[in-house]
């Protein structure tokens, strides 16, 4: 039973903050006893590389998902206060938490609430102003009386782990530094995960001779799939321990402290270490059960260059009713090459995460002209659209093998066509506009007719071989004449023109 006099303050913009609120509500804590305090936003792009506490903001400014969740919170009675910084934790005479002190940004309006308790008694759960205004540019001091404080405003290193790192004299620069085989400076100690960062010597210096900056964007492992990082760690350990797979890397010829392998950020040569870093391609996934029993999924492709992160297209459908929890909010971002780079979902129904991961990195052309259909109002909900029969092949466990085979078939011939088409462009048009339909049509015109026939033959063979798992009969030789079967084959043929330009 929750103490009616106890209030809980949750501080932070992390996804954990919102999940904690749902956890409290699930344990029958009254929503009016919960206060969410949001600190000023922090971005990876605005903090120094040596900062040990990484920002964990779940949503960017103006994110529609954040707005919907805040609407849910306020509708059920949870108080939400933004742009306040936690400064002091107050204890009573029995060394128990009794209040937290917060600082508002200078120049902001007073956020305090009117006390409504008996005179002379502390008012719990209310944001009270405690500082007298002397200068309008000075920050405002506030206080909230509470018994429970949950913080989720940043990820830092566990003190016990940090002590172990120091005791073993390992290199720690905001994160534990490892090489391409996940080895620390002590070759017998391997490490991987959100605490770790690859050595900066693997980053090429700019050709202009400028200083290398923003290492954590590509070297810190918290932006990669944890499952994939674990897999690469296991492979690295096997490579080092298995005598039959011993290589120059495993034997230590690529020394972590060898001066010849270090990269000088000021060097104009811009040469990085010859040993490549592990490749990470699986999407980074964030999931959680949010207030209102809403399931949240966000998947993003790691390691994209800055210009690639700028979405060339954003596809959105929104029929979510936050009051009843029915419907879905779904957003797909497409990068400059026409591939799905980010997927966001909020709704009352859980999704199959494995299928969602399969969408990331897939050319948007696979989705049967979905962007235009959404813009024209033909598609009301992306999730329901992807559950149609035509999309079943996209989630088949052998579909990635098919696309890889299509991209590899007659690869050199296709590359020669692409090179000839772009030789007078110097890449600037593609870099600015991405892979457009006009560019694809130009490339198609240069390809021989046998190329499309070859692709069609491979697709037909795929449908015949896997017909038992697809929602149509592909056993007959004339299966391409059926409307329903054409519905499945047509988008697959359309998108293969994108596959060969990867």
Automatic annotation (TrEMBL):
The CFAP61 dimerisation domain, residue ranges: 278-394
Biased segments, Polar residues type: 264-275
Biological source species: Perkinsus olseni
Region named Disordered: 249-280
InterPro entries: CFAP61 (IPR038884), CFAP61_dimer (IPR056299), FAD/NAD-bd_sf (IPR036188)
Protein name (record): CFAP61 dimerisation domain-containing protein
Organismal lineage: Eukaryota, Sar, Alveolata, Perkinsozoa, Perkinsea
Top-level taxon in the UniProt lineage: Eukaryota
